[in-house]
Amino acid sequence: MSFPDNFVWGCAAASYQIEGSTQDAKLSGESVWDMCCKKEGFVKGGDTGYVACDHYNRYQTDVEIMKSLSLQAYRLSIMWPRVLPEGTGKVNAAGMDFYERLVDSLLEAGIDPWVTLFHWDYPVALFNKGGWLNSDSSDWFADYVKLVVEKLSDRVTHWFTLNEPACFIGLGHQTGNHAPGLQLADREVNRAWHNALLAHGKAVKTIREFSKKPARIGAAPCFLTSVPATESQRDIEAARQYLFKIRDNSMFNASWWLEPVLSGKYPEDGLALFGENGPPIREGDMDIISQEIDFIGCNIYHSVTVKEDESGQPEVVSYPNDYPRTHFNWPVTPEALRWSSKFLYERYNKPIVITENGLSVNDWVAVDGEVHDPQRIDFLTRYISGVKEAIKQGVDIRGYFQWSIMDNFEWAEGFSQRFGLVHVDYNSQKRTIKDSGFWYKNLIESKGSILEATNPLQHWPSDAGA
Ligand code: GCO
């Protein structure tokens, strides 16, 4: 079996991580990431996104590289304060023009732009008015979305609302290690969360209402995913239960986002856990939040492994010290995409798009001038084989977006984590396509069939200590 003919092969990146020119003379407003980059100790080594990959000035070169790699689609995001420096009101025409030119170049190169409306670069001007805690915040977002949709929807047909609320609310407003760096109590965190859910729903409505072409809309959440320790029915059920239950007050519980969006209600176990610190739900809110979407985007990098314990409950199996890990120290769990997509599809019956997947490797330009990254090729081979397996078992997966087309600014980790298929020298801005980039090109051109030549063990290492 190969991948379906209409399966979409792409790469992803995000505005703040690659564009640079964030606080430039071109009238962009600041984002909360610009704000936090100035705080000592916030980002490793004092790195900032002020220049990053200078994609704002070099986007044509980057689109040429994407074309040379035969990408069919590219998932980009729009920097809200670049187009609306104050978050609302006056438009920065030069900023909007940048995205128009980028979209046009992609289309000329035969690459379909899939646009994420918010990937964490929140306008400081709105943060100063309370940001996601302000009850107007979902309307601010909807107004911004309307502007973008009016400008781009004659050419863009695939949209994502918010990227990873678990990160920008959970890490941004609860643990504080992402921008805007707040550590709030559960009640406030849930208020921000609820406003983000409303923003998602209003964005979906806005896209449907104003899009010039029929739009396909998804969300791109992230959450803690799980894989079963063995293929036994009991471990599979344990992994499924673990995925969907609310385990603690973290925003990384899958159901805390998915249930409101896809079922129109918060999960009971979460409401019970938070009690009076739960989200401030007003009449009508859940209808707004649960607007019909066309697919679920999955940003998945790794999973916990779960088995059924003696009392029949899910139990997390710990990874031994010698377990394979990426440069980020994330465990390599080849079955993550296979099981997560299957569990989600069985529960919600919505098409799935893998919107992010990849790994960081501390790779460098070798003496021969090339970048050899066999671990990335191996990782992608294993994970994408899991996608193939899921499709074979009937899961409706429409596309795969590797994270990321190029090395970039990895948030609080600065430039210390390289996720790209293309190496970036941040001093010279030289781009070097890595071995994995050429491999991915072959994968796309063969419609995934080069995977047939390999037979990656799905259970790897064989028993994860189970
Ligand atoms: C994410 C982010 C990306 C990260 C990537 C690697 O959506 O978490 O979208 O911005 O760079 O996930 O950590």
Account of the 3D structure:
It is a single chain. With 466 residues, this protein is α/β, with parallel strands linked by helices. The chain has one domain (8-453): Glycosidases (TIM Barrel, Alpha-Beta Barrel). It has 16 helices and 13 strands. The chain has helices at residues 15-18, 32-37, 55-68, 80-83, 93-108, 124-127, 137-152, 165-175, 186-210, 233-244, 254-263, 268-274, 285-289, 336-348, 374-392, 435-445; strands at residues 8-12, 73-77, 112-118, 158-163, 216-220, 225-228, 295-299, 303-308, 314-317, 352-356, 397-403, 422-424, 431-433. The strands form three sheets. An eight-stranded parallel barrel has the order 1-2-3-4-5-7-10-11, surrounded by five helices. It has a three-stranded mixed sheet with strand order 6-8-9. The protein has a two-stranded antiparallel sheet with strand order 12-13. Helix 3 (55-68) runs parallel beside helix 5 and helix 14 runs parallel beside helix 15. It starts with 7 loop residues before the first strand and ends in a 21-residue tail after the last helix.
SSE layout and pairing:
Elements: E1 8-12, H1 15-18, H2 32-37, H3 55-68, E2 73-77, H4 80-83, H5 93-108, E3 112-118, H6 124-127, H7 137-152, E4 158-163, H8 165-175, H9 186-210, E5 216-220, E6 225-228, H10 233-244, H11 254-263, H12 268-274, H13 285-289, E7 295-299, E8 303-308, E9 314-317, H14 336-348, E10 352-356, H15 374-392, E11 397-403, E12 422-424, E13 431-433, H16 435-445
Parallel strand pairs: 1-2, 1-11, 2-3, 3-4, 4-5, 5-7, 6-8, 7-10, 10-11
Antiparallel strand pairs: 8-9, 12-13
Helix pairs in contact: 3-5, 7-9, 8-9, 14-15
Bound molecules: D-gluconic acid.
Residues 14, 17, 163-164, 167, 222, 299, 356, 403, 410, 419 line the site of D-gluconic acid.
